[in-house]
Each structure stands twice: as C-alpha cells, then as structure tokens.
Amino acid sequence: MLIVQKFGGTSLANRERLFAAARIITREVKRGSKVVAVASAQGHTTDQLIADAIAVNPRCSAREMDAYLATGEQLSTGLLAMAVEALGFPVVSLTGWQAGLQTDGVHGNARIQSLTGERIRRELETGRIVLVTGFQGIDPEGDITTLGRGGSDTTAVALAGFLKADLCQIYTDVDGIYDKDPRIHPDAVKFDWISYEKMRRLIAGGAQVLHDRSVELAQAFGLPVEVLSSFTGNPGTIVCAESVRP
C-alpha cells in the first residue's frame, strides 16, 4: 500500500510535534506501507519570512520571493527527516524540484502541471520513507515556484494522484471537517464524509481546512482524501465523490 500524508505547520511547530508526526509516519511503515509525506513550513514561519522580505524590499520580484519563501518548507522537511532518522527508519527529504513537481510559471500562485516521479519511486523501492517539501515546484524555466497559501495540501493531493496512491491523508490541528468552525462554535457538527462539491462550497464560504485547488485536484483524480488531526488519533472526515461515499 502507498500512502501520501501531509502535515500542516501547527503539526510540526516544535520538537514534540515533529516527533509526533514522525511516529505517525513510521507507524504506517511498520504496518507494511510505503509512505510519502509532505511538510508545510513550521508554525508561522511563512508569515515571518514575508515580513522580513518586505522589510528589505517592499517591491521585490515574485520570482525572488518564491525562491526565498520555499526555504520555509525545506527547513521543516529537513527537521522532520531528522526526527524520522532518530526513530531508526531510512528516509530521504526532497525539494519540490527534486521530487519532479512541474508547474506553470505563475510565481506566487503556480498550478501543478505534472510529476516526473522517478526519483520518488526509486527511493521508495530502496525502502526509504520519502519526505517532500510542500507548497513548491519548478517551472519550465527551471525556477522555483510556490503554489499560494495552503499549497501544501495541493502538493499532497497531486503526489497521491500522480503516484496512484491508495490513500491521501491531510493531518491538521482539527479532527475533521465541520459545518462551522468548532474552535468558535461548540455546537459545530463533524462530517464523517463530505462530497467534493459541498467541500468547495464550504471553502468558498470561508472554511480554511483545505485549499480549494487540492479539492479540485482530488476530484479530477477521483481520489478520496481524509482530513484528520495529528493530535487526537480520532477518525477524520473523508472528502470524496458521492458515488463512493463510505
């Protein structure tokens, strides 16, 4: 079985959470699965990077901003790889371009076009866990591009779709998808499953659990996506077509 997992910034915010994510990843390997995991930048790293860049040059080019912002995911992916290594498992971390994620040339809001996934497949065949930086790819000119806010969700779904993974899991700080924000509304109701169309309506209404493009890609691939908490261990919410609802 091939599983693609994605860990958001809050799930990787400190040493304790890095190791919690590493244990989630290695648990699936112990069960016999091959795992590709996507990492977001830690905590509020991206916000701080943007603030620092603007302090230097408020009118910096989109190309240079992309090259700079991509480092946030590289830092967290490297640290997550070190945590997996510390648990005694073979692992390799790859940037978006090393993984072969090809995008268009729209800096700051690029769209994934294809995956040349030979490197990922080769690493998996050697028995390694593969960690991939979220939020980034490479354009036809060979330049680093970023996918916009929430782009690590899109990275994970794209990898799962192109690699024909059996499962795509998005680990976050809430334990699924609710009809309204459970952190604000105590009476919020959690969905066991939700259709792609209804999920996109929730996103259009302001829900921030998933990136809209990740749902668009999942629907195009016909790929069910599970949204679940990296903290509780509870079952999450499955985003899928109505025809294949659990």
Explain how this protein is built.
With 246 residues, the chain is α/β, with parallel strands linked by helices. It is built from 8 helices and 12 strands. The strands form 3 sheets. The chain has an 8-stranded mixed beta sheet, sandwiched between helices. A two-stranded antiparallel ribbon has the order 4-5. A two-stranded antiparallel sheet has the order 7-8. Strand 4 and strand 5 form a beta hairpin. The longest helix has 25 residues. The radius of gyration is 17 Å and the shape is globular. The mean pLDDT is 94.
Q: Enumerate the spans where pLDDT stays under 50 for 5 or more consecutive residues.
A: none
Class based on secondary structure composition and strand pairing: alpha/beta
| Mean pLDDT score | 94
Q: What coarse outline follows from CA principal-axis ratios?
A: globular
Q: How large is the share of residues in beta strands?
A: 15-25%
Let me know the number of strands: 12
Order of helices and strands: EHEHHEHEEHEEEHEEHHEE
Helical proportion?
25-40%
Largest sheet: 8 strands, mixed
Please give the alpha-carbon distance between the first and last residues: 19 Å
Strand order of the largest sheet: 3-6-2-1-9-11-12-10
Computed Rg:
17 Å
Can you give keywords for this protein?
two-stranded antiparallel sheet, 8 helices, alpha/beta, eight-stranded mixed beta sheet, 246 residues, globular, single chain
